[in-house]
Amino acid sequence: MKQLIATLLLSATLGAQAQEEMSTVWETKLGHRFDYTGTGTEGRGYSYAADDKEMTVFDNATGATKWTGRYKDLAPKLRKVDELIPFWESDAVFLFDRKTGKDQLAVLDLATGNLLWNTENYQNLTDESIVYIPEKDGFAIALKERLVFVKAKTGEELWSTDKFRGAAGQYVVTPDSKLVMVNFIPGGLGALFSGFKNQIVKIDLANGNILWENTYIGRAERTVISKEFLYDLDIVGDKVFLRMNGMQVYDLNTGANIYSAAFDYTPDKIVGAPAGAKKFGVYHAVAEPVVVGDDLYVLDMSSKKSQYVKKYDRNSGKLLWTSPEIKEARAIPNMYVQGDRVLLQIGGNVEAQAYIYKRESDGQGGWKITEEWRIWHPNVKPNGIQAFRTSDGSLVWDSERFRKGITNAVVVEDQFVVCSGKELYSMDLATGAEKFVVPVAKGGVGNADQIMTYKDMIVVIGDKGVSTFNMKTGEPVASGKYKKADLEDVEGDRMILKTAKADIACFDLDNCTFKEFKARNDAVTSMSTDGNFVYVYDKKNVTKVATR
Hints:
It contains two helices and 48 strands. By secondary structure, the protein is mainly beta.
């Protein structure tokens, strides 16, 4: 009887589906439609919505309008806006009128709507061409022939240099208040930067003098939609560490190469671009280097026919060992070093991003234009799991289980859990033996699209909702069944799924109950950074709903 009761209680937990709607905090109707939206943090306290003729900034707490205005009144040299680029850290927004024969740029104070400055001197700028540097409260702007640095509040040009080509990428402030940074070509503007070469420089921001420069291996870039840098720059002591398809290390004082454990890699053709894609990129197809104490583990993906794991001394760059070949892996998204094992996930989910623009006849002599900013996680084959010894790089085990498919794999302490899409496998790190195998169907949400960890649980994002499993035993814990939807966001204990029709469900990961909000097609949703709210932008309406 006790066993029967326990089974019934578990079934009730797995079958629980909260039908509760997200409660509305406020709803505001603006005086104009919007093509551009931006949600500020709750701490910042305001957000914006805009179209090509006017803009409104509203209060996050109440939805009340802070300011609204037509561009021709806010910035008299503008008649419309073809592009809007916010720089939250500087409380500024760049507005571009690109159809007057010469780009007109106006910069407004986001908090007040006041015009800060405007100019016609800077042409063909994109969001990647402009970098805000808070240490000097200025913008580094990449032009065709030079890099200029201007004051954020006035637009006054402090200096320019023709010795740095391309856009300013990630940077680090040195102990003596100089900058070390790399350059890159903004997407689609490669032809503008004649004579471009990969540069890493140390620059004096006071006058633009290049104190030293060197080259780097690979391609510095940002994701096309979320605009994340795909590399890291760090200073440790008197060394500069550039993590980009491996690791490159420079002397902070002179810029001299100390060592390079890097390679060129471009994920060509592993995922096809969708129809109408104007911008497209595939990311996270190669696992990042792993540092354990003084040891550095790097994936060498320079050859398309064979790949290797290499272990280096992190301080000197001395190569300690090279693993046996990993043959014809098109993607290796995850590498973990746990105890005396290096674990590889071969194939599986990668990330793709695209800006899609379609112009189609409306059947009445006009045109229908649709735009989509899409982020998704396609699956790349071949698949496999391999483990190598940290001492000498020799292959310890190779699991045959995952030849047909992998979504992804996660490691927490001594647990290595791999998902095939249909089953969860807990693998023994030392031998590859299976500690448990659990069908994800036990979670009640169909096959898995991907997995992640939360507390002591495996979270399965499935075809029809979210379920959780005990990390140690594989037993199902809770389930929330929903319709077909994609992962939109995760903040703390809150997870947002969004359907193709823009309906959203916010799951409580502690028990998989959820609240939903039924939005109209093409509505834009944005989760607050604390996970407590979602902002829904729909035609002229902005609605703030609570996730708790």
